[in-house]
């Protein structure tokens, strides 16, 4: 279904602003404008000053239902998305301004992103050049952790990035990405969103069982685009699945044990044995799953218990399995920084995204030594 997103356009002034009475150093006050699409003039409708900020929600409704939802005389929210010159959204409160629906449709700019358009648009050709410069070559097995927003404005969005990666690897290469689904676990353990206690029983009862064909991943737009790519295969783990496409893909995803899913016997051990390369595309080592594999090899590894529903003989059942615990920034960034300093990696930019490329085996061996000392 096509969706129409629209929000007001903001301009920055020179005044500092306060939010909840606390000075925000280095941030600017805002003035909120909407663009009148009929005559291309800006009109100020909401102001931001040193006592408060405008709201930041977006209105996102199905295109097909506009006529039904926005009937003449209906009053709908006009909402604001404050953003900094770097394109980062600044969190504010709920929408508070309302206007007649017809006025809203006439004046509000519909947008797909709220970012500045500094620099050049990123294309498949420019991304392929960047990938080649950092060291991605034909025939490589490549595990990618990524952030689309860090690349800059990409013509065609996430699918363009996937095409660039596949072209860089060629027919003899293999592309691999995580396809984790933390929303398939017990909702009592969720942190984003953290559900109300009163909801937990109903959500737990009706939570869908993981389906490798249809369950989306929460690992970002690039990973989700790759999951849906023709001939992409996916391992059958309810929480920590992996997607792969290419000559080595069937072997990588064929087995994925429920317990210690990022450890021996699963896709990450196979990637280790293949001596695949890891590309951190606009993300840090806190996103690097190879470090979970490394920790799984250590006797004093940190452990958690995950609970999720599975199908057993056609019946839905909840299972509890052990896995390597989340790092939450405790060690992974430090391991990564030491590894980069002592071992060396290929550094570069893919679009605007600071990126590093390195052998998985080298990182894992380094990290095992680290974890043996500190855990």
What does it look like?
The protein is of the alpha+beta class. 26% of the residues lie in helices and 26% in strands. It is built from 12 helices and 19 strands. The protein has helices at 66-69, 101-107, 124-134, 148-151, 158-169, 200-206, 221-227, 249-253, 267-273, 290-296, 332-343, 360-374; strands at 3-7, 9-12, 18-19, 22-23, 30-36, 41-47, 59-62, 75-78, 97-100, 109-110, 141-146, 174-178, 233-234, 242-246, 277-281, 303-312, 315-324, 346-350, 353-359. A 7-stranded mixed beta sheet has the order 13-14-12-11-15-19-18. Strands 7-1-10 form a 3-stranded antiparallel beta sheet, covered by helices on one side. The chain has a 3-stranded antiparallel beta sheet with strand order 2-5-6, with no helix packed on it. A hairpin with a 2-residue loop joins strand 3 and strand 4. It is globular and about 50 Å long.
Rounded Rg: 23 Å
Specify the biggest β-sheet. 7 strands, mixed
Number of helices: 12
Q: Residue share in helices?
A: 25-40%
Q: Give the assembly state of these chains.
A: single chain
Average pLDDT works out at 76
Q: Span from first to last CA?
A: 49 Å
Give me the secondary-structure category: alpha+beta
Q: Which overall shape is indicated by the principal axes computed on the Cα atoms? A: globular
Strand order of the largest sheet: 13-14-12-11-15-19-18
**How much strand content do the residues show?**
25-35%
Unreliably modeled segments: 1-116
């Amino acid at each position: 279904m096509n969706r129409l997103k629209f929000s007001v356009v903001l301009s920055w002034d020179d005044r500092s602003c306060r939010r909840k009475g606390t000075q925000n150093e280095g941030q600017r006050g805002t003035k909120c404008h909407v663009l009148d699409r009929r005559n291309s003039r800006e009109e100020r409708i909401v102001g931001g000053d040193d006592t408060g900020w405008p709201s930041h929600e977006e209105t996102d409704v199905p295109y097909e239902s506009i006529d039904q939802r926005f009937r003449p005389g209906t009053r709908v929210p006009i909402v604001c998305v404050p953003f900094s010159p770097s394109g980062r959204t600044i969190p504010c409160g709920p929408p508070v301004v309302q206007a007649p629906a017809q006025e809203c449709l006439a004046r509000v700019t519909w947008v797909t992103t709220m970012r500045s358009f500094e620099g050049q648009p990123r294309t498949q050709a420019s991304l392929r050049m960047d990938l080649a410069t950092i060291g991605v070559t034909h025939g490589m097995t490549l595990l990618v952790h990524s952030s689309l927003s860090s690349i800059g404005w990409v013509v065609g969005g996430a699918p363009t990035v996937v095409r660039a990666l596949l072209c860089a690897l060629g027919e003899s290469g293999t592309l691999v990405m995580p396809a984790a689904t933390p929303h398939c676990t017990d909702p009592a353990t969720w942190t984003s969103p953290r559900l109300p206690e009163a909801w937990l029983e109903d959500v737990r009862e009706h939570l869908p069982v993981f389906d490798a064909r249809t369950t989306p991943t929460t690992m970002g737009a690039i990973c989700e685009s790759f999951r849906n790519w023709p001939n992409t295969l996916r391992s059958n783990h309810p929480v920590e699945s992996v997607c792969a496409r290419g000559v080595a893909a069937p072997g990588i995803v064929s087995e994925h044990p429920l317990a210690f899913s990022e450890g021996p016997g699963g896709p990450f051990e196979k990637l280790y044995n293949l001596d695949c390369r890891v590309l951190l595309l606009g993300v840090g080592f806190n996103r690097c799953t190879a470090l979970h594999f490394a920790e799984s090899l250590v006797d004093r590894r940190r452990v958690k218990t995950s609970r999720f529903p599975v199908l057993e003989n056609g019946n839905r059942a909840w299972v509890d399995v052990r896995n390597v615990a989340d790092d939450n920034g405790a060690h992974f960034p430090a391991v990564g920084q030491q590894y980069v300093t002592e071992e060396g990696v290929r550094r570069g930019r893919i679009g605007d995204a600071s990126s590093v490329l390195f052998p998985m085996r080298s990182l894992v061996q380094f990290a095992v030594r680290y974890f043996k000392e500190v855990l």
